């Protein structure tokens, strides 16, 4: 029972973080503009490809990102501190200047001549899952517990969050044109800012965890000396 609870807790932490940094609703509105000249069938195919590629990128970052950081001698506390700063910085920009974030995303995606050929680059990376998403995924993966029993539900929950995020990207991109008409400019801004605030809180928590990891040994050594 505890294993399923831990997996659920990991999913409930990871999914809001990934959702907030990917911001699929705002991305879908730009995606709708970029693929306006395509038929509905082509748009559905493209949405599926982008979702699959994005899920793969998030899973790789979650599973292997920490190992790559360790290979370069980067400690877990440093990874959490750096990742937390990236998340907070991204969330701050989304919260107070969402227009700049969307403009940057649109510049990254460009206006591909044939979107079918651009499914991975640039529509998946860096448009949908860019450096910010990869940083968040690596930081989430760095919070892995030490015990094997806790490790399995941890990765099940985080992997489930990445797969669920991929499904959300697929569904929202698939109906991007309808979503654009339904939400409009004001609705998108409201949703973006709510997501950004959640992401800001998650980034602050990651920073606190990193600070605790870095300072705890210093306090313990001081106590041992006394």
SSE topology sketch:
Elements: H1 2-22, H2 24-34, H3 40-71, H4 76-96, H5 98-109, H6 123-128, H7 131-142, H8 148-174, H9 176-225
Helix pairs in contact: 1-7, 1-8, 1-9, 2-5, 2-8, 2-9, 3-7, 3-8, 4-5, 4-7, 4-9
Description:
By secondary structure, the protein is mainly alpha-helical. The protein has helices at residues 2-22, 24-34, 40-71, 76-96, 98-109, 123-128, 131-142, 148-174, 176-225. It has one domain (2-225). The chain is built from nine helices and no strands. Helix 4 (76-96) crosses helix 7 (131-142). The longest helix has 50 residues, at 176-225.
Radius of gyration, in Å, reads 19 Å
Strand share of the residues? under 5%
Number of helices: 9
Find the structural class using helix and strand composition: mainly alpha
Number of separate domains: 1
Q: Span from first to last CA?
A: 42 Å
Number of strands: 0
Mean pLDDT equals 80
Shape: elongated
Low-confidence stretches: none
Task: Provide a short characterization of the protein structure.
The chain has helices spanning 2-22, 24-34, 40-71, 76-96, 98-109, 123-128, 131-142, 148-174, 176-225. With 226 residues, the chain is mainly α.
Keywords for this structure?
226 residues; 85% helix; elongated
């Amino acid at each position: 029972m505890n294993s399923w609870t831990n997996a659920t807790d990991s999913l409930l932490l990871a999914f809001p973080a990934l959702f907030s940094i990917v911001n699929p609703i705002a991305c879908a509105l730009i995606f709708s503009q970029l693929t306006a000249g395509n038929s509905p069938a082509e748009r559905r195919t493209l949405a599926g490809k982008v979702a699959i590629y994005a899920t793969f990128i998030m899973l790789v970052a979650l599973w292997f990102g920490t190992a790559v950081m360790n290979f370069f001698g980067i400690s877990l506390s440093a990874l959490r501190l750096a990742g937390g700063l990236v998340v907070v910085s991204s969330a701050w920009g989304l919260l107070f200047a969402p227009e700049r974030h969307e403009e940057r995303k649109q510049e990254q995606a460009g206006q591909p001549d044939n979107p079918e050929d651009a499914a991975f680059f640039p529509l998946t990376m860096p448009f949908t899952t860019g450096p910010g998403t990869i940083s968040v995924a690596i930081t989430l993966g760095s919070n892995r517990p030490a015990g094997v029993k806790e490790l399995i539900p941890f990765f099940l929950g985080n992997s489930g969050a990445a797969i669920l995020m991929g499904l959300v990207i697929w569904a929202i991109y698939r109906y991007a044109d309808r979503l654009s008409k339904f939400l409009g400019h004001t609705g998108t801004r409201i949703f973006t800012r709510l997501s950004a605030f959640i992401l800001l809180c998650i980034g602050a928590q990651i920073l606190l965890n990193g600070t605790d990891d870095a300072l705890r040994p210093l306090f313990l050594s001081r106590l041992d000396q006394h």
